[in-house]
Amino acid sequence: MIERLAVIGVGLIGGSLARALRREGVVGEVVGCGRALANLEQAVELGVIDRFTQRPDEAVAGADMVFVAVPLGAMRGVFSAISDRLDPGAVVTDGGSVKGSVVADAMAAFKGVPPSLVPGHPIAGTECSGVEASFAELYENRRVILTPLPETDPDALSRVTAMWETCGAEVTCMSVAHHDEVLAATSHLPHMLAFGLVDSLARMRENDAIFRYAAGGFRDFTRIASSNPVMWRDICLANREALSAMLARFGVEMTDLAESIRRADGEHLLEIFERAKSARDRYVDSAR
Amino acid sequence: MIERLAVIGVGLIGGSLARALRREGVVGEVVGCGRALANLEQAVELGVIDRFTQRPDEAVAGADMVFVAVPLGAMRGVFSAISDRLDPGAVVTDGGSVKGSVVADAMAAFKGVPPSLVPGHPIAGTECSGVEASFAELYENRRVILTPLPETDPDALSRVTAMWETCGAEVTCMSVAHHDEVLAATSHLPHMLAFGLVDSLARMRENDAIFRYAAGGFRDFTRIASSNPVMWRDICLANREALSAMLARFGVEMTDLAESIRRADGEHLLEIFERAKSARDRYVDSAR
Ligand SMILES: NC(=O)c1ccc[n+]([C@@H]2O[C@H](COP(=O)([O-])OP(=O)(O)OC[C@H]3O[C@@H](n4cnc5c(N)ncnc54)[C@H](OP(=O)(O)O)[C@@H]3O)[C@@H](O)[C@H]2O)c1
Ligand SMILES: NC(=O)c1ccc[n+]([C@@H]2O[C@H](COP(=O)([O-])OP(=O)(O)OC[C@H]3O[C@@H](n4cnc5c(N)ncnc54)[C@H](OP(=O)(O)O)[C@@H]3O)[C@@H](O)[C@H]2O)c1
Question: What is the domain extent for residue B247?
Answer without folding.
Answer: 178-287
